[in-house]
Amino acid sequence: MAMNTLKIREMILEPGRPKVAVPIVSADPKEIISECESIKKTPCDIIEWRADKYIGAIEDPEKVIDQKDFYLDIMKIMDDINYIADGTPVIFTVRSIWQGGSAGLSEEHLAGIRGLIAQSGLADLIDVELVGENGMIDERAVSRQLDEIHSHGCRAILSHHDFEKMPSAEEMAAVVKKMHEMGADVCKYAAMASSREDDERLLKTTAFLSRSGIGPLIMIAMGENGVPARIAAGRYGSCVTFASLKGESAPGQPDIYTMEKWLDDYYGGKES
Prior knowledge:
The chain has 272 residues and is α/β, with parallel strands linked by helices. It is 44% helix and 18% strand. The two termini are 20 Å apart.
């Protein structure tokens, strides 16, 4: 298998028509399960649980997190999601507030939750944020988290989001190379697009990284102006794109049925 591909269950993440991940964004446990059941009926390839939406609805989560029931509840939901997914790969994501999510928890607590999910074996991929609350990369902490995830046989997505702008090609490439060097199984970079030029810059960066053997890659242009790059990025080396069902988890995310139609039109029909 090529250096920039990855097999997850029976699915191979590789450049070309991207696999479509749909996030669960509900906060109530019953609604989370209901949403997961609905997502499973769509033509998505991957299910992502945005657990920060659930945590963000808890009053004073930093206090509650010290209680055993907090972890038991998360594990119960994760177990139900895994059962409903029935072979569909599952991403576990607990997105911090400083990376555009809803989880008002310390970096230490976020790491603890990710470690628990890795140990459970209920997620195929666990999202880890590259940059901390102070806007800096704590290489030791990130490497420790990746090692913990890998020690339980799980794979890690190392991610970074820029909701303000589309950085230069050099900046994006440097960050993704850093992710790769640190041991990410999948490198994810998402940045806000405000023009066609932003889309083109992300796609060119994606192509450069892919040709360099870095990956698997998830390269996303956020916002309404980023839609063309969301569709085309697979042709340049990206392997996953995101679509919504109940609600978007990032700006400019189209619904799953619209995304599938666009991908069919662009790539000539879904592979069997």
